Amino acid sequence: MARQKIVIYGDEVLREMCTPVKEITPELKEFIEEMFVTLRRVKGVGLSAPQVGVTERFFILDLEAVELEHDKVVMINPEILSTSGEQCGEEGCLSFPGLFVEVSRANEVVCRYTDLDGKQKVVRAEGLFARAIQHETDHLNGVLFIDHIDPVEREMLSGKLKKIKVS
Ligand code: NI
Q1: Phi, psi torsion values for 39, nearest 5 degrees
Q2: Is 136 an annotated catalytic residue?
Q3: Which domains, from first to last, does the chain contain?
Q4: Is the pLDDT of residue 42 over 80?
Q5: What single string gives the DSSP state of each residue in 82-140?
Q6: Average pLDDT, the chain
Q7: What is the mean pLDDT of residues 143-164?
Q8: Distance from the CA of 105 to the center of ligand 1, in angstroms?
Q9: What is the mean pLDDT of residues 77-95?
């Protein structure tokens, strides 16, 4: 399989509404395995399908470095059922190299998803795990982390964003 290329901000694919995964095929499993290789290579925490050019609803997380419990998570067709609390922290995104901004998120989420074996699961997440689920689920709806900061702050970032943007 060819090396996956991470899509950078400015590419329209990052603004698309992704479609549900209908079937977990061997090809999908192989693609997801490759996404973990890609994620490790760039030392990231999460990677969504549109970030590697596929407009379908799935993402992976590798929280090994930060939360031993949740290393190598695959969420297919995730749905955030409820949120509560608030957390504010610095966030980055592989599609925005070098950009880190304070983003306010819910502190806890309950998320239903399908795992790689096709089983429906519900997870209650908090802290960084919850933040990552929200960030990656946003990607599946064409929403980016910069959409969560206020307009004034975004204006201040416009120079940096222009540098990142592919045209
Ligand atoms: Ni991201």
Answers
A1: -65, -40
A2: yes
A3: 12-166 (3.90.45.10)
A4: yes
A5: EEES-EEEEE--TTSTT--EEEEE-SEEEEEEE-TTS-EEEEEEEHHHHHHHHHHHHHH
A6: 93
A7: 92
A8: 14
A9: 97
